[in-house]
Amino acid sequence: MAVKLPEIQRIDRSNVSAIIQAIIQDGCCIVKNFTDAETVSVVNEEVRPYIEADKPWKGDLFPPETRRCANLVGRSKTVREKWFVDPLIRTLLSKFVDKTTSNFYGETKHTYTSEAVCNIAVTFEIGPGGKAQRLHRDDKNYHVDHQDQTATGYQVGSDVEMAFLLPGVKTTYENGATLAIPGSHLWGQERAPKTEEATYAEMDVGDCWVMLGGLYHAGGSNITETEKRTVHGLFFTRGYLRQEENAYLMNAPEAVLSWTPEAQKLMGYSLSSPNIGFADFRTPIQYLQGDASDALGDFDASQEKK
Ligand SMILES: O=C(O)CCC(=O)C(=O)O
Ligand SMILES: [Fe+2]
After folding, report:
1. Would you say which domain of life the source belongs to (predicted)?
2. Domain check: are 18 and 59 in the same one?
3. Which of 12, 110, 164, 233 sits in a 20 to 30 Å window from 71, CA-based?
4. What's the gap in Å between 164 CA and the centre of ligand 1?
């Protein structure tokens, strides 16, 4: 018996309540008319030099055919001024990622909201022959302990991360459209994702894929001979998932490089397993040292295939 794959909902950007309902139900959806083709082509041009300069990954996180443009918000004025501050993104972040709690300060009750911040912005270009990533939850990096919500339905506030992926080209099954399992944001920690359960988020230029950090997904495989699958990604997390004192701004790189490795590590010039805190896909210390070697590789040995 053929298994029916869950379908991805495609909803116009003007229908915000339907987008929110789709995310609650499926953990994802494709937003139609998020942007226009002209803006996409300007962004594609802005990232091109960085994509060309990038080197193959040696490890399991990306296939060697993939190239990246890290620091997308810093490097692309158009991303920064058009997509990044799009009111629809803010609306969805305020619904799914921002966190509000109340506490007593003395006998007065105070209510605070921590607004989402960008945790990474990066372009992924999967070249011909690139193999699919393994299905994963992006919020593994934040050690989210997912409870099984398949019976109860989704409790808004369960996720700490949300992603927006904008295709630079039409994405297809053949060129490596993102793989995803709609509904998998509801799964508990013990349920393993199976490739047969995944469907393809094929998109037109101008669309935007929205997903929660707990949704199982992966970059697809590019089985074409010539097409490059370019996707621009904006990822956001809770505003408080960072250190209280911003020592990175307060200490000069030369000073930090003179510290002991133990002090560097404890001050956060280290990586939190598996993937938090890198700069240009290097460790902070490699980055401060101006290490421009080609040795890009997995940060955490546990990511290697057994
Ligand atoms: O390239 C894609 O479609 C998704 C990439 C991804 O999921 C990741 O690198 O975490
Ligand atoms: Fe991912």
Report:
1. Eukaryota
2. yes
3. 12
4. 11
Residue 292's pLDDT is what? 74
228: its two tokens: 């490059």
| Greatest CA separation for the chain | 67
Q: Which atom of ligand 1 is nearest to the CA of 66?
A: 1
224 and 257 share a domain?
no
Q: Which of 242, 261, 291 is the last residue of a domain?
A: 242
Question: Where do we find the tokens 């993939």?
Answer: 66
For residue 167 and ligand 1, the question of a CB distance below 6 A is answered with no
For 109-125, write each residue's pLDDT tens digit. 999 999 999 999 999 99
CA of 179 relative to ligand 1 center, distance in Å: 9
Among the atoms of ligand 1, which is closest to the Cα of residue 61? 9
Query: Does one domain contain both 222 and 256?
Result: no
Ligand 1 contacts CB of residue 35 (under 6 A): no
pLDDT averaged over the chain?
95
| Cα distance between residue 293 and residue 117, in whole Å | 30
Q: Output the CA 12–ligand 1 centroid distance in Å.
A: 23
Going across the sheet that includes 199-200, the strands are 199-200, 179-180, 217-218
Nearest CA to ligand 1 atom 1: 219
Query: In this predicted model, what pLDDT tens digit does every residue of 81-90 receive, in sequence order?
Result: 999 999 999 9
pLDDT, residue 305, reads: 58
At 81, the amino acid letter reads E
Same domain, 172 and 269: no
Q: Reduce the DSSP state of residue 221 to 3 states and report it.
A: coil
Average pLDDT over residues 246-265: 98
User: Is the CB of 34 within 6 Å of ligand 1?
Assistant: no
Q: Is 232 in the pocket of ligand 1 (CB under 6 A)?
A: no
The per-residue pLDDT for 3 is 60
Output the pLDDT for position 306: 47
Torsion (CA) 201, 60, 65, 51 in degrees, nearest 10:
80
Mean pLDDT across 260-264: 98
Q: Do the domain assignments include residue 216?
A: yes
